[in-house]
Every structure is written in C-alpha cells, then in structure tokens.
TrEMBL record:
Keywords: Cell membrane, Membrane, Protein transport, Translocation, Transmembrane, Transmembrane helix, Transport. This is Protein-export membrane protein SecF. The lineage of its organism: Bacteria, Bacillati, Actinomycetota, Actinomycetes, Geodermatophilales. It comes from the Bacteria. It comes from Klenkia marina. It is found in: Cell membrane. Residues 409-420 have a biased composition (Basic and acidic residues).
Length: 452
C-alpha cells in the first residue's frame, strides 16, 4: 500500500531514467545554439547589449517642451512685473516716430496730393533716361519705377494740358516710341482728400466698435488697454513710413485697417485667457491678479508668436515676389505696412495691453485686498515651513508617508519612534461631572482618595 511516508521515514529517491537526462541535454544544446545564432544585429534589434558591452541605462523622463512649460507657469517672462521697463521702451520708440512725423513728414502719393502719371512702355535700362527727359520737360517727378516688367511709371506734380503733352512727347522720344503709346492720367487733389476723410471716419467707427465690444464682453478696463495697444500700432507704423520715406497710397490706408484688425485679434486672445485665469481667484487666494494676468501672457506667448510668423510669411512673399520679381510698387507699399503692423501688433498685445490692464486693476480695493491676503498666506506658509523644519518629530508625525512600502535600509535610518505623548486638554475644554452625595454621606475628594 502506497501513501505518504510517515514522520521520521526517509523519502524514497525516484529514478528518472535516461530519458530525463537526454531531455536536459537537448535543452542545453538548444540554448547554446540560440546564443551562438544571436549575433550583434539581432541583439540590437531586441534592444539588448552586445557581448562584452555594458547595458545601456534607461533614459530619464523626456523634458517638456517650452510651450508646455510656459503654459504651466514653469517658465516664462515677467511681463507684468516689469511693466515699467516695457513702458520706457515703448515711450522711446513712440517719441522717435512722433518726431519723425512732425519734422520729416510723409511722402504722400499722387492720390492724396493730386498730379499726373505717365505709363511708358520701356525696360529698366531706359528708366533713368525716361525720368531725366520728364524733368527736362518741366515736370516734377516724385517717383519713377518699373511695373509689370516692361513699363515705366512716372508720377509727377499737377500739370495743365500743354504740360502733359510736352512731357508725354519727351518721354516717348527717350523711350523710342510714339507719343500716342504713352498713357497719361490726371488725379485731382480733391479725390485724395475724400479718401483721407473716409479713412478717418472708418478708423473712428472701428475704435468705437472695439471699445463697446470689449466693455460688454470683458470689462471697460480691458477696452482701455486694447485702445492703447491700437494707438501704439498706428503711431509706430506711421513713424516707420515717415522714417523710410515710402509713398503713402490708398494701399497704405488698406494696410492700416488690416493691421488694426490683427492687433485687436491678438489682444482679445490674451484678454480671454486673462479673464479665464482670474475667475474665482479670490476664493483660493493663491496668486495675485497681476500674477494671474502674467501667467495668461506666458500661456498665449507661443501662440502669439506662431500666429505672427504664419501671418508674416505670405506678407514677405508678397514683398519679395511682388516687388523683386514683378516690380509692382503698390504691392511694396502694402507689404511694408503689413510687415511693420503685424510686428507692432504682436509686441503691443503682449508687452503693452496686459501690463496696462494689470496696473489699472491694481488700483481697485478688491484687487488690493486679494494681494494682501495672498502675501499673508505666503508669509504664514513660510513660517509654518520653518517650524516644521525645526521639529523633525512633529514633522514625522504630521506628514503623510511618501510611499506605502519603505525599504529596510530606509527604516533603519529613521529616528526612533517617540514615546506616546499623553494628550492633555485645556482646563476650559474639560467638563467635570460630579455626582451629588447621598444624604448623610461625606463628600469625596475629586481624586477618589480617602481623607487622611
């Protein structure tokens, strides 16, 4: 009868036989052949080190991108905190632009000042000859340029009928063509004045609509910051036109209105993030209003830069292709105003509009009270952190364990557990109930002991 051996009896040895030995030998041969077949390429494909090489250490956590760190507040610019610096930079640039507009003035085109234009079929080699011929005929040439690759465009001051005929004959002789092939156009100064008046009306209506929208959608102080940014963009773009001496044409007016729309769009994006960050800010009291606004600027910083770069690419293409290859002067005016305006709009929406808004909000009593609460809370946290650092026993008793399982070596390094401390309540919190003595019995002492 077979069964489990009793206690004290030796366990019988089982003879596995020759089959088990052969199986183990075959397994060893298979492992040896597999190891021999595993060359360096196979090990590399499997992610294993080659023979004689140390294993590659595991890569650490991937570093977050700049946009991610900006959005989380881990990195960024202190735009609101250094608002005075940005105000000074802006003031210097604006003053230079205003001085240029006052003392240097603008180079108004024929559409604003009135005059004549002559289109002469000629090449770029004949440009100088055609211009000199027009000036010798008594015309005041303001601009002379190649348009369309095979046409010279001359813009002169106002001429009468006889003067037009004389200049047309002179430029035709210089280009070697008939006077009838020269296209002559006359523009009155009244037409340019009408364009200026309509542009000013459109600008005023646009600014009023912007103020109403921002005041209703967000708050009136955001409208003040947006208008300040728009005025900065207008002055800066106009100042650059005055400095470089480019001709002001109707295309320039169109470009002005375009950059105002872009600047407003970028400012509204930043203000929308500011409005999102400051919601329920007083409940948590973890950051001031200015810090929340600065966080919004950094969260939208990469978006603003990417949007501006994408918008500038077609403008630069317009500037290079339209002016460099096609020789269209009108595109040159439009491309310049768009380039300067887009760059100015990006700067003002980041470094001007939000700091102005934060400075205006800092004067409100509620925002000032929030700032005091935040500073008081941070001071209290700093004091509590210092107290916890001074008492390791209290810190060990109050702090939660960082992990559930602690290594044995770490446990040995921990200080000994302090003795149990008896909790003592304050006299005011202790309510002692004493039973009334029985009739004829002596009152007992509070401790329950007998009187000696």
């Amino acid at each position: 009868m077979t069964g489990t051996p009793r206690d004290g009896e030796p366990t019988p040895e089982v003879d596995l036989g020759a089959g088990a030995v052969d199986a183990s030998t075959e397994d060893a041969d298979v492992r040896r052949d597999a190891a021999a077949d595993a060359d360096d390429d196979a090990l590399a494909d499997a992610g294993l080190p080659a023979e004689g090489e140390a294993p590659t250490p595991a890569a650490g956590p991937k570093k977050a991108s700049l946009a991610h760190r900006l959005y989380n507040g881990e990195a960024g610019l202190d735009v609101v905190g250094r608002s005075r610096f940005w105000y000074k930079v802006t003031a210097v640039v604006v003053l230079v632009c205003i001085a240029s507009m006052v003392f240097r003035g603008f180079n108004f085109g024929i559409d604003f000042e009135g005059g004549n234009s002559f289109r002469v079929p000629a090449t770029s080699a004949e440009l100088t000859q055609v211009r000199e011929a027009a000036e010798e005929a008594g015309a005041q040439v303001s601009t002379a340029q190649i348009v369309g690759g095979n046409t010279v465009l001359l813009r002169t001051g106002a001429l009468d009928n006889a003067g037009e005929a004389t200049v047309a004959a002179a430029v035709a002789d210089a280009a070697g063509i008939q006077p009838s092939e020269v296209t002559v156009e006359s523009v009155s100064a009244d037409w340019g004045s009408d364009i200026t008046d309509q542009a000013l009306i459109a600008l005023v209506v646009f600014l009023v609509a912007v103020v109403l929208f921002l005041a209703v959608r967000f708050q009136p102080k955001m409208a003040v910051g947006a208008i300040a940014a728009l005025v900065h963009d207008i002055v800066l773009t106009a100042g650059v036109y005055s400095l470089v001496g480019f001709e002001v044409t109707p295309s320039t007016v169109i470009g002005f209105l375009t950059i105002l729309g872009f600047s407003l769009y970028d400012t509204v994006v930043v203000f929308d993030k500011v409005d999102e960050n400051v919601k329920d800010l007083e409940k948590g009291a973890r950051m001031t209003w200015g810090e929340a606004a600065n966080l919004a600027v950094n969260q939208t910083l990469m978006r603003s830069i990417n949007t501006s770069v994408i918008a500038l690419l077609p403008v630069l293409g317009l500037l290079v292709v339209g002016v460099g290859l096609l020789g269209v002067g009108t595109l040159q005016d439009l491309a310049l105003v768009l380039t300067v305006g887009l760059a100015a709009g990006t700067y003002s929406s980041i470094f001007l509009a939000t700091p102005i808004l934060a400075d205006l909000k800092a004067r409100e009593p509620g925002v000032q009270a929030l700032r005091k609460r935040v500073l008081a809370r941070r001071a209290a946290d700093a004091r509590s952190a210092g107290a916890v650092a001074a008492g390791p026993v209290a810190s060990a008793r109050r702090a939660r364990p960082a992990r559930a399982a602690v290594a044995v070596a770490d446990r040995e390094e921990l200080p000994e557990r302090p003795e149990a401390v008896e909790q003592v309540e304050s006299p005011a919190s202790v309510t002692r109930t004493v039973a009334a003595p029985r009739p004829g019995a002596r009152p007992r002492r509070p401790g329950g002991g007998k009187r000696r």
